[in-house]
Amino acid sequence: MTQVFLGMPAGGQGNLFETEPFPKAAHRELGNTQMRKNLRHATHTIRDKRLNVVGELPDWEELRDAGSAIKNLTMANLEERLEEFEKNFTARGGIVHWARDADEANKIVTELVKATGSKEVVKVKSMATQEIGLNEHLETEGIEAFETDLAELIVQLGNDKPSHILVPAIHKNRTEVRDIFLKEMPVVDPNLTDEPAKLAEAARKHLRKKFLSAKVAISGANFALADTGTLGVVESEGNGRMCLTLPETLITVMGIEKVLPHWEDIEVFMQLLPRSSTGERMNPYTSLWTGVSEDDGPQNVHIVLLDNGRTRALADRFGRTALNCIRCSACMNVCPVYERTGGHAYGSTYPGPIGAILSPLLTGIEVEENGSLPYASSLCGACYDACPVKINIPEILVHLRGEDVDANRDKHKLPTQMDLLMKGGSWALGKGKNLGLLEKALPLGRLMSGKEKKIKKLPGIAAGWTASRDIPAPPNKSFRDWWSDEKESK
Amino acid sequence: MWSDHLEYKVRAITTSLDYYEVRGIVWSDHTLKESFIMRIALFATCIVDAMYPETAKSTVKILERLGHEVIFPKAQACCGQMHMNSGYMPEALPVVENHINAFDTEDYDVAVAPSGSCVASVKHQHPFLAERLGKPELKERAVAVGKRTYELSQLLVDVLGITNAAEQLGSYFPQTITYHPSCHGMRSLKLGDRQLDLLKTVGGITVNELPEADQCCGFGGTFSIKNSDVSTAMLEDKMKNICSTGASACAGGDASCLMHIGGGLSRTGAKPRTLHLADILASTMEETVSL
């Protein structure tokens, strides 16, 4: 496998790859105490907020069911919905482009920007363009992209990578943000404090002239409505609104799974999304645009419909509901693994539980180290509980572990320790009498545990357990044997 | 419904007595009004069978105290969760098939296991595996077995109507404990406060609330060895929270999670130990479980 670089993706798929095994990445990130402190604080705050606003709605479970049903129905007829959207978007003066993968999408966007003669673009926060590595690609083409979302700006100025899909700089605290601003902003008050209002003001001053001078904006989209040809962006800061209305040209890059059948469907998703993502009843800015409005807003309106593995994921009958994701980030906010490792450990643009299933579903399990992602979960199920469209993430994780094991079966000449453990376990646990036979050796384990009555060190992969935990001395007799002796013989 | 398949097996319903004596314990009339004498199949689970036999014995004791007959289908071994959750689906199949063969019989009324995780596996993962491996008949049987399988607190509260462990089970445990709700019971089975409510009504007990109780202990089966570092980081927080309660034991409904937490507490030399819900419920004034 080739190494993946930002913007120079293997196989043209962009930033969907874990480039080192998750346990290794996690080990490194766990050592970053400042990041862990920041993340613990941030995730716990947002968890509480979400629980409060979700608890206010008596029909929350019904809303989740509705969201899930709308998404499932859409995915079952995705072709028709996309063509319907194309027809209606085109009829209103928009131009539709289709991109098979990240490379194609980057090429389309670059050509569109070059055609305007502009050397710079302003950007609305977008996961799709992160996924395809658009900024890095534009840079190689001599086009500068300016992120306008506050958190994306922090990440971009800090020459960093996003670690969360909604709060890309969640791993930084405000003092670290101030330091980045002081170091990287061309014009900045040297006495800048870390008060949120002051930081926002510094960002506003930095961005304002970009908004006023930019000729081209690039956005993502939270949804596309097939029956009206409308696109929508949901945001908090209003920076998105500036980008969507001021420039002459607006290019939107959107995954094909974001289409919804009807205008009315917004009702459901506009209740599910803000409450699940920021823990707000309503987000501050919702922008909807339908093609071109004469003499108002951008006059050249494009959309790049991106596949980049989505049809592959759709073909997986046990994994396809991952495409129902509305990028709210509730799953990562409640995930105990994400809370401790942070988003960078997942490699891909999509971290956390949804990333652990989405990345391998989009790329295939065997690519790079994406096969290690589905194991990055204790299967506690907090993500499934929090998911506004009821994606059964634990079940898909287990399914993908199965894919990973199967993909690796022929790769090793010798079986791994895990292979042996599982094969042995299949025999031992496949019959009551086999287990009974093995249990006859329990006194031996008891002997091993010595005077302290605990096993403190085991060899091989089991050393992962005894690194931090003892195993109690086994009993002299299994329950099975006790039953035979005490219950059956009497 | 459990009562559907009970009809043909109800052996005694007594509502006319003021009290009723079963194995030396006197039950008041009101508990019997709703109670059938059932034949209950114990699914011990592999970890309890091999490592924590006392917990299975406790489960038997509790159910027998209520006057029910407990059987132990000897063909049983394991739910196969370790295999499935590690991705070894073909290897999981014989284990799952064995479980279904052992429990797809008319020889009992309901099955019970002292584990939320293993019951969740039987109810949800067995049909999923059968579906994934393209075995519709096995899936049908798996669903049937799943419907008749209960986690211990589910059986006690929902079927047997236990609302007060001290009064109805004679449970007595004069210790200060805290309680960790294991993830699969809490989320997959939606057990809610059933286990905690049972514990709170044990005679002599003090239950201190566990901070961040709903957070996973980090066990996750082979997650604990494959992602040992993350698992340990989760365990450390769980142990810190347990120790902060001042309890001398942390109770729970899953032997596997308790082995994980207990193994960590033992390694760090912390005072609290772990104890299964069944062992606390089985503890009585006459035969008190010691820590």
Topology:
The complex is a heterodimer of chains A (490) and B (291).
Chain A: H1 22-30, H2 33-55, H3 60-76, H4 78-91, E1 95-99, H5 102-116, E2 120-123, H6 127-132, H7 134-140, E3 144-147, H8 150-157, H9 174-184, H10 196-213, E4 216-219, E5 223-225, E6 230-235, H11 239-245, E7 249-255, E8 259-260, H12 266-277, E9 285-289, E10 300-306, H13 310-314, H14 330-334, H15 336-341, H16 352-363, H17 382-386, H18 393-408, H19 417-428, H20 432-439, H21 442-448, E11 454-455, H22 463-466, E12 471-472, H23 479-488
Parallel strand pairs in A: 1-10, 2-3, 2-4, 4-7, 5-8, 7-10
Antiparallel strand pairs in A: 5-6, 6-9, 11-12
Chain B: H1 2-6, E1 19-22, E2 25-28, H2 29-33, E3 39-42, H3 46-51, H4 53-65, E4 69-71, H5 81-85, H6 89-103, E5 110-113, H7 116-132, H8 136-147, E6 149-151, H9 152-159, H10 165-169, E7 176-179, H11 183-188, H12 194-200, E8 206-208, H13 223-226, H14 228-244, E9 249-252, H15 255-268, E10 273-276, H16 277-282
Parallel strand pairs in B: 3-4, 3-5, 5-6, 7-8, 7-9, 9-10
Antiparallel strand pairs in B: 1-2
Helix pairs in contact in B: 6-7, 7-8, 14-15
